[in-house]
Design brief:
Blueprint (H helix, E strand, L loop, with lengths): L15 E4 L7 E5 L30 H12 L3 E4 L21 E2 L2 E2 L12 H28 L5 E8 L2 E2 L2 E2 L4 E4 L7 H10 L5 E3 L11 H7 L5 E7 L6 H19 L10 E3 L2 E6 L2
Parallel strand pairs: 2-3, 2-6, 6-11, 9-10
Antiparallel strand pairs: 1-3, 4-5, 7-8, 9-11, 12-13
Length: 279
């Protein structure tokens, strides 16, 4: 990891935003797809402005939930400052979808020749300037927690569309996870006990993705974690964002106080059989 000690803590020039950086180190909230903005010099990547209001550009409502959750848990949060169309912070550098050329029917002209093989200089620039600094910031916040003799719980906030092509998605929320069920299993049980929502288990996506954000920062470190997906129509408004953050905060506190949860344990990964498992 590059040394960031001399860089401003929360400069507008950074491709990430730190919220409540001095908060309690017991939790760390992440929001990879918080923004639909693009940095200076990229125009609109050749897309119509309306495309940046769609889910292809950012996770609608997720940033608001992350901010409210950070406040309710009094913990730091790291938010991406730029659109996933520039570079996807929830993908590894070797993932072919890290710079999308086609997303839900929209061709992205500014990404046409940007990958590790064609347009390699621009690809390397996006990784170095926008992708790596975000992940360095996450690592720095984890290191601060560990220096305080705390095992942080990582919560990644995302949102999903109510419908995907012809399929209506029945879930209000979903928990994505790999092999470490310390937090996901009791969290899903608690949410279902609320009685008024449909909760997905690795729905509408899977948490078994090598080199995604939580694989990189939680699975490989043995930290407890969960990726939260919330349906976009439920968190389009400030009221909805606050309500869903409150729902999750209400459950996360008691669950993460359970004995044994806050420990470094390596469970391995379905996505990478070579990853070590704690004995």
């Amino acid at each position: 990891m590059r040394d960031l000690s001399l860089q401003p803590e929360n400069s507008r020039s950074q491709p990430f935003e730190l919220v409540n950086p001095g908060g309690s180190p017991g939790f760390l909230v992440l929001c990879d797809h918080a923004s639909n903005a693009l940095p200076e010099g990229y125009g609109s990547l050749g897309l119509a402005a309306a495309e940046f209001e769609r889910h292809i550009a950012f996770d609608i409502g997720a940033a608001g939930v992350a901010r409210h959750l950070s406040a309710l848990l009094d913990c730091p949060a790291v938010l991406g400052r730029y659109s996933r169309l520039l570079v996807d912070l929830n993908r590894g550098e070797d993932d072919p979808t890290i710079v999308m050329k086609l997303s839900d029917g929209a061709v992205i002209p500014g990404n046409r020749d940007v990958d590790a093989h064609r347009g390699a200089v621009e690809f390397a620039h996006r990784i170095a300037a926008f992708h790596a600094p975000y992940h360095d910031a996450v690592e720095r916040m984890i290191a601060r927690a560990r220096a305080a003799d705390t095992v942080p719980v990582l919560i990644s906030v995302h949102s999903f569309t109510p419908r995907w092509r012809a399929h209506i998605r029945p879930w209000h929320t979903g928990i994505l996870w790999d092999k470490d069920g310390r937090l996901p299993v009791p969290l899903m049980a608690a949410l279902r006990e609320d009685g008024d929502i449909v909760v997905g288990d690795n729905e509408p996506y899977t948490g078994r993705l090598k080199n995604d954000c939580l694989y990189r920062h939680a699975t490989m470190h043995g930290l407890p974690h969960a990726l939260i997906e919330i349906r976009q129509d439920l968190i389009e408004t400030e009221e909805g964002q606050a309500a869903w953050a409150a729902r999750y905060a209400r459950h996360l506190g008691p669950i993460c106080a359970m004995p044994g949860l806050r420990a470094i344990r390596h469970f391995g990964s379905h996505a990478d059989p070579a990853l070590p498992i704690s004995q």
